[in-house]
Each structure stands twice: as structure tokens, then as C-alpha cells.
Amino acid sequence: MGFLIFLFANIIFNVIVPHLRGTYEYYWFGNLSIIFFLGFTAYAIFAKHLFGIEVILTEILVGIIGLLLIVQIFTAPTILWRFINILIFILFCIFGYFLIRSVLREIKLREEIEKISQAKTEFISITSHQLRTPLSAIKGYLSMILEGSYG
Q: For residue 15, what is the DSSP state?
């Protein structure tokens, strides 16, 4: 929904209106439509669990730190510091990859645990129902025998 609002607002205010009127004075309306896109995307992430927010935040964090390390490589004062920064960047990329992979594995394991827990709950419910049914019948027959109304 947010993408469609963003798309149509940009087409209308950034393509059609400038072509018809010959002016770009309403161009900024198209740029403001990004608010709808970001709002609906945030809603999808938080309310509908559309994306794994843990994975997204981990990837953003690793990306930002990686960019800072790249900047540090190019601003190193000497060749030795540049070499050390390159080595640190390579090690960080390796560990960042393992971090993201472990977050993905954790999410997958959590989903499997939830499925197993649901299956356990269903099994206990069915088993308790199947065990109660014969016991209720036996209890009913015993009460009838004790009252003398049966047999």
C-alpha cells in the first residue's frame, strides 16, 4: 500500500504535472510521499513480522561498522596503519558473516521450537481426551452397579 502511494505520487508530481504545466513547483509533493512508504514498511516489519527484525538490525549494524572501517582504511596516515586497517576490515567481514549466519540460524531454531511446542500441546490434548473417554464410561457403569440399577 505504501509503495503504491509512493509510486503514484512520484509519477503524478514528478512526471505528469511537470509535463502538463511545464513547471516543477509541485515536485516536493512526490518527495514527501516517501513518508507513506516508510510508514507502511515499518508497520509491516513490526506489526505483521514481515521481516526478521533481528536479521535486519544485525545486517545494518555490520554494514555501518564495515563502512566506518573502509573510511578508516582510506584515512590511515601511513602504509603500516593502512595494512593493519585492511587486516581488521577483513577479520571484521569474516566475523560479521558468522554473526549474521548465527542470527539466521537462531531464528530458524526458534521457529522449529515453536512448531514442536505446538505439536506437543496438540498431542497432550488428544491423549488426555482419548484417555478420559473410556474412564468416563467405566465410571458411569461402576456408579450404576453401586446404585443397584444395573445388574
A: I
